[in-house]
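R.M. (postdoc): so does anyone remember the format we settled on? I'll just put the structure tokens first.
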């Protein structure tokens, strides 16, 4: 390095004052810096590059060019700059997504979703457009969804009045190999035109669903199916999700300036403004609107709540709307054109809309300062929108009727606003200035957990999206744990925790290998330490079993130290290449709940689960046992006492003795492995219920063992019987007792 007496800016330019051993390197560095600071002029010679001043750097076209250059390998949403100043941004699925606000916001997000309005920019969701004959599109989806989901061809869906919630599978592999929940929306059918369907998908499975649609089209090999056109139009739409009691009132205030006030969608929006909550309206209904430029009436203010009774005329209008809900023409465009479905028209409207400078000049020319601008049909443009009443069906991927009473209505129901690209920032600022609380992805998952709903992909085990999600989180947690000194990190092996960083559902179902996305322990020192601790624990158990061999002679050959071998003996070896059956949907979960309360007159697993097998079409009895051994059922666990269930915590069948910690178990007895039935995927203290709650997944065979143990399950409207299980503490504390309920 340079001597201390030469460490000044002026001396660094004098190469001859550098030491001889550093002079050659300094000359080469100066040549590089000189070449980088000069550009080729008109004469072809190197000239000094002049840096633009701040005015030129902050011009609109300069900023836009800089933003486009910074989006290298990742896509920014239209509200990215607004979010980047207020939230932690994370690159996920090729998009920069707002992960969580800079402030503590879990309780604030819960209050906003319960009492006020919770808003999230969900423009990162992908949209696939399928164009062709209606019959061909229906047959195409029939290869990827459950047979009962083919009601998407019903008139209420085809005319565009309702959005369908589906669970997609790999082509021809139902009920195995689930991909995840999707929503499908038809364009209102017009005679003489082809049918158009939009499929809204989570970005983590969008590429897989797109490839499966192409594969299904090739499998059908029929002329109509081969003419189907499949396009990705994700970049042509923006979308926002709103939750909370005031979400309906806020949308009515912002979207009240419609271009056609007497249209069907506008009249419905005006009538439902007095409803206290979006849960008062049926789910999945679609309303088409066309509003004036939201910048003309900015900022919007939320109107005062109507505490008094409605006038007789408005009450009669509201009753008529609810009786005829949804109206036949509610999903049609007000102007009679394609509306938001006509992407070329929407793009031309964005190009010819007036700029902010022109709008400011019009505001300056007004006589009354602060007055709202009046729409000018010669200059201003209109914005086509789709307003969709969303709820738990979109997260579950199926219809929800009977299990809706288990959810917290205010947290589960809301609206989704779809708009053409280019209008995202205008609508986003209108929502925020009206009082909506903007939140990130973590807060949205937390609100879904408070409502009692499984979120995707964090609570969809058995899917490739869950394996990627859980594998990335497990790798991060394992990296943090392994970087700590051995004396300062938690000794999970000593506490009896076999998988602290991931939920090994593959081991629970008897599979011999874990997904490729799960982290593997590669540190030699750590492996030696783990083998040494396993040997110590194995020696202790061998001595304990030897002392009790007189009473239990049959168990002397069982190696309790190898969890994989024990699970293979208990559940049977399952082909690792085969898929996992995730029992989803309200119909199948209701069957499982009824099986847990069935009388004890059946002996085998196949006999017990016969009603569940009969509900699955196209599967013979030869593969029934293998199918049942690969089945996972999602459950909700409501804790009774103290303690909060941790992620990846094992779930055991509750014994008759009081709960004890692993260290207090009787000598020679391992209460965990024989009674293991599942794992916790998400656990926390529930603000909505006032106690700890967890969402996990159990194997169907584990629930069969729970039923054989004589423990009934308590349905929401059920009797006094309840399925009580215990959740292992990840820090060596006492077991946590909980009540188990099956969820779709």
């Amino acid at each position: 390095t340079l001597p201390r007496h030469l460490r000044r800016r002026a001396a660094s330019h004098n190469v001859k004052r550098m030491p001889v051993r550093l002079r050659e390197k300094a000359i080469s560095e100066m040549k590089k810096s000189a070449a980088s600071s000069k550009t080729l002029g008109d004469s072809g010679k190197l000239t000094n590059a002049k840096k633009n001043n701040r005015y030129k750097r902050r011009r609109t076209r300069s900023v836009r060019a800089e933003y486009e250059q910074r989006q290298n390998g990742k896509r920014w949403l239209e509200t990215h700059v607004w979010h980047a100043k207020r939230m932690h941004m994370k690159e996920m699925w090729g998009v920069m997504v707002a992960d969580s606000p800079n402030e503590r916001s879990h309780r604030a997000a819960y209050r906003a979703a319960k009492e006020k309005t919770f808003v999230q920019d969900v423009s990162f969701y992908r949209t696939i457009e399928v164009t062709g004959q209606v019959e061909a599109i229906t047959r195409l989806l029939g290869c990827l969804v459950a047979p009962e989901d083919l009601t998407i061809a019903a008139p209420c869906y085809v005319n565009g009045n309702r959005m369908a919630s589906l669970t997609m599978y790999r082509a021809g592999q139902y009920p195995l190999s689930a991909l995840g929940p999707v929503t499908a929306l038809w364009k209102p059918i017009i005679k003489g035109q082809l049918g158009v369907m939009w499929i809204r998908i989570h970005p983590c499975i969008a590429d897989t669903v797109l490839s499966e649609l192409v594969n299904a089209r090739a499998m059908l090999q029929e002329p109509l199916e081969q003419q189907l056109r499949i396009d990705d139009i994700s970049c042509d739409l923006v979308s926002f999700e709103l939750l909370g009691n005031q979400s309906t009132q806020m949308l009515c205030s912002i979207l009240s300036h419609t271009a056609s006030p007497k249209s069907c969608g506008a009249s419905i929006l005006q009538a439902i403004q007095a409803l206290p909550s979006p849960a008062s309206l049926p789910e999945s209904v679609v309303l088409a609107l066309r509003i004036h430029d939201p910048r003309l009436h900015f900022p919007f203010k939320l109107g005062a709540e109507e505490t008094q009774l409605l006038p007789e005329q408005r009450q009669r209008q509201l009753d008529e709307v609810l009786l005829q809900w949804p109206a036949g023409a509610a999903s049609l465009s007000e102007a009679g054109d394609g509306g938001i479905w006509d992407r070329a028209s929407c793009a031309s409207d964005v190009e010819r809309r007036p700029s902010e400078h022109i709008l400011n000049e019009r505001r300056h020319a007004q006589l009354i300062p602060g007055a709202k601008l009046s729409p000018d049909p010669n200059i201003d443009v209109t914005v086509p929108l789709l307003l969709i009443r969303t709820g738990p069906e979109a997260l579950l991927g199926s219809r929800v009727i009977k299990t809706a009473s288990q959810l917290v209505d205010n947290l589960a129901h809301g609206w989704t606003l779809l708009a053409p690209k280019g209008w995202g920032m205008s609508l986003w600022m209108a929502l925020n200035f009206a009082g909506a609380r903007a939140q990130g992805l973590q807060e949205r998952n937390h609100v879904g957990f408070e409502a009692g709903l499984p979120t995707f992909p964090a609570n969809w085990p058995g899917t490739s999206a869950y394996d990627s999600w859980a594998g990335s989180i497990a790798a991060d947690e394992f990296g943090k744990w392994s970087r700590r000194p051995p004396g300062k990190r938690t000794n999970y092996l000593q506490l009896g925790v076999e998988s602290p960083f991931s939920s090994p559902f593959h081991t629970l179902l008897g599979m011999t290998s874990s997904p490729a996305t799960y982290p593997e322990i590669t540190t030699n020192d750590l492996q030696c330490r783990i083998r040494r601790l396993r040997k110590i624990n194995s020696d202790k158990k061998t001595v304990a079993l030897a002392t009790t061999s007189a009473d239990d002679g049959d168990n002397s050959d069982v190696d309790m130290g190898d969890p994989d071998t024990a699970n293979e003996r208990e559940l049977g070896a399952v082909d690792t290449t085969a898929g996992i059956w995730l029992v989803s949907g309200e119909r199948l979960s209701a069957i499982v709940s009824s099986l847990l309360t069935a009388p004890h007159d059946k002996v085998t697993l196949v006999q017990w689960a016969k009603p569940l097998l009969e509900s699955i079409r196209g599967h013979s009895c030869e593969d029934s046992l293998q199918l049942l051994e690969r089945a996972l059922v999602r459950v909700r666990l409501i804790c009774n006492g103290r303690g909060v269930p941790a992620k990846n915590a094992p779930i055991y069948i509750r014994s008759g003795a009081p709960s004890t910690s692993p260290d207090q178990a009787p000598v020679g007895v391992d209460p965990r492995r024989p009674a293991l039935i599942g794992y916790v995927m998400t656990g926390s203290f529930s603000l909505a219920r006032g106690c700890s709650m967890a969402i996990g997944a159990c194997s169907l065979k584990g629930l069969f063992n729970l039923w054989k143990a004589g423990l009934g399950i308590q349905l929401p409207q059920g009797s006094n019987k309840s399925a009580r299980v215990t959740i292992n503490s990840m820090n060596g504390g006492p077991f946590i007792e909980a009540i188990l309920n099956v969820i779709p």
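R.M.: ...and that's the designed sequence above, right after the tokens. Also worth knowing: The chain has a mean pLDDT of 79. The longest strand covers residues 676-686.
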